[in-house]
Amino acid sequence: MKNINGSGEIILFFVSILAAAGWFFSKYALVGFPPVGFIGLRFFSAALIFFPFAYPQFKRLTHSEILRALSTGLVFAIFMATWIIAITFNNNLGSGAFLLSVSMLLAPLISWLVFRNKPLRTFWIALPTALCGVYLLANSKGDFHFSLDSSLYLLASLFSAIYFVLHNQYSKSIAPLPLTTLQLAVVGVLCLSYSLLTEEWQSEIPSSAIGWLATSVLIGTNFRYMLQTIGQRYCHIANASIIMLLEPVWTIILSVILLGEQLTTVKIIGSALILSALLIYRIQNLLGLLKGRNRQST
């Protein structure tokens, strides 16, 4: 569908800000909820909201498609649980967002190793560039020593990459709404089960935490997903991919404003290296897609 006066780009620009804001919705909600329990409540609630709209499409899913959706939901749950635990350790959400964004480069590496999908040549330029940025962001003591929160963000980045690869490999034939609903439900059920067995819950949850939970569900998950779907419908894939790279940029800006994160020279250089690496790979990847489409049209 054609882009209507740049409406798709405007919507996705707003979505990238919402994605960054989601980090802070979650951070503020943790004052009243255990981390994994919060993720469970957030995603299970989001799945319940989507369910009435997705139900008619569930009837058309095969057993194999349901199993694929559930399996990718399992990896998604591990990723989200690791991410939320990382958030609980410090206020450097900006650095965490850039460390997590490295998953965009780990994904093609995993896809190549597991499914033999060879990455583009610029990948071998982008990956070392990103790793230099990771070292600058995560190396906290001047020697090769990563802090606990940095290690958790990198672990979350790995699980995010695995989820993306499996999602892309096994879920291409499944409609987006039932797929998303099933994955959200899996995350909710698994994380809530884990939390009820292992985490301690407060006897009285502050109303502010409940408010942030509701904000995370309605705005950070459901509303954001709806807007992203609409934005991608009216936006060229090249523009959409570049715009969504803004999420860690907004996150680090908000982290400085809201949480007082310190922007050192080393942190700025590290973030710039990671962003440059993502742009190098993303632009080359999109050029390859565009060439392929042009060949098909001719």
Global structural class: mainly alpha
* Largest sheet report: none
The geometry reads as: globular
CA-to-CA gap between the ends? Answer: 20 Å
The number of strands is 0
How confident overall, as mean pLDDT? Answer: 88
Radius of gyration: 19 Å
Could you walk me through the main structural features you see in this protein, from its secondary elements to its overall organization?
Keywords: Cell membrane, Membrane, Transmembrane, Transmembrane helix. It is a multi-pass membrane protein. InterPro entries: Diverse_Substrate_Transporter (IPR051258), EamA_dom (IPR000620), EmrE-like (IPR037185). 80% of the residues lie in helices and 0% in strands. The protein contains 12 helices and no strands. The protein has one domain. The protein is mainly alpha-helical and 298 residues long. The two termini are 20 Å apart. The longest helix is centred in the last third of the chain and has 33 residues, at 265-297.
Write the layout of secondary structure elements.
Layout: H1 7-29, H2 35-58, H3 63-87, H4 93-101, H5 103-115, H6 123-138, H7 148-170, H8 176-198, H9 207-233, H10 237-244, H11 247-259, H12 265-297
Helix pairs in contact: 1-9, 1-10, 1-11, 2-8, 2-9, 3-7, 3-8, 4-7, 4-11, 4-12, 5-7, 6-12, 10-12
